[in-house]
Design brief:
The chain has a 7-stranded mixed sheet. Strands 1-2 form a two-stranded antiparallel sheet. 26% of the residues lie in helices and 28% in strands. The chain is α/β, with parallel strands linked by helices. The structure holds S-adenosyl-L-homocysteine (SAH).
């Protein structure tokens, strides 16, 4: 596993990931803890993998790219929408003060919670909810990252961003049938400024929660 991890880190560098804090965080988190048993062999391949409930753990390059784009600092309070496997959350938790992570699938949130405990990632706070609503009680956030795509950014998330905050969001362009990671911030007049970073393929941001008893 260690040799595969080193190969992945070299590949990420080759792909232009140069933020050493992000690379160190990726090095410190065992991705094999976040994939299901049949995919253990591929834990350090630079690909997305299925995690159950029809969802995926993101490709390491995309995790690295989105994390770098967030420009995190050690004192920041960060919101993640879409805990999924918990891998992106684990990486973020190494680079900020506290990470709040929301997942709509109770089943995925529970498995992620076990992983966070096993790795003693004590600065992650989770809830099972519809992330479109953000996390009102904990707002404002210095950074917000959404790991599921939608054609518009939920307005509640913008309202929960601190004045010099940043949002990283996979925005879907329905007419062009494509998605791009966008970096969003507010200028001094409070207007939304949006910058396109790269084309991606994410699962959709859906409304409501999925309790454990629901069959998928
Ligand atoms: N960050 C994850 C990526 C998971 S895929 C990882 O590193 O593994 C995106 C996740 O977003 C899925 O688990 C999906 O269930 C979740 N999701 C989709 N819509 C959501 C919503 N409205 N609120 C919270 N989570 C949502």
């Amino acid at each position: 596993m260690e040799a595969r991890k080193i190969r992945l880190l070299l590949e990420l560098r080759r792909q232009g990931i140069s933020d050493t804090n992000v690379l160190t965080a990726i090095e410190s988190i065992p991705r094999e803890h976040f994939v299901d048993e049949p995919f253990l062999d591929q834990a350090y391949d630079n690909i997305a993998l299925p995690i159950g409930s029809g969802q995926t753990i993101s490709q390491p390059f995309i995790v690295a790219k989105m994390t770098s784009a967030l420009e995190l600092g050690p004192r920041m309070k960060v919101l993640e929408v879409g805990t999924g496997s918990g891998y992106q959350a684990a990486i973020l938790s190494k680079l900020c003060r506290r990470l709040y992570s929301i997942e709509r699938h109770q089943y995925l949130a529970e498995i992620a919670s076990i992983r966070f405990n096993n790795l003693r990632l004590t600065n992650i706070v989770q809830k099972v909810d519809d992330g479109n609503q953000g996390w009102h009680e904990q707002a404002p956030f210095d950074r917000i990252i959404v790991t599921a795509c939608a054609p518009t950014l939920p307005s509640k998330l913008i309202s929960q961003l601190s004045s010099d905050g940043l949002i990283i969001f996979p925005l879907a362009d329905i007419s062009k049938k494509c998605q791009h990671i966008v970096k969003i911030n507010l200028n001094s007049d409070g207007e939304i400024v949006q910058e396109k970073l790269l084309e991606v393929r994410f699962v959709p941001l859906l409304p409501g929660v999925v309790p454990n008893k629901t069959k998928i």
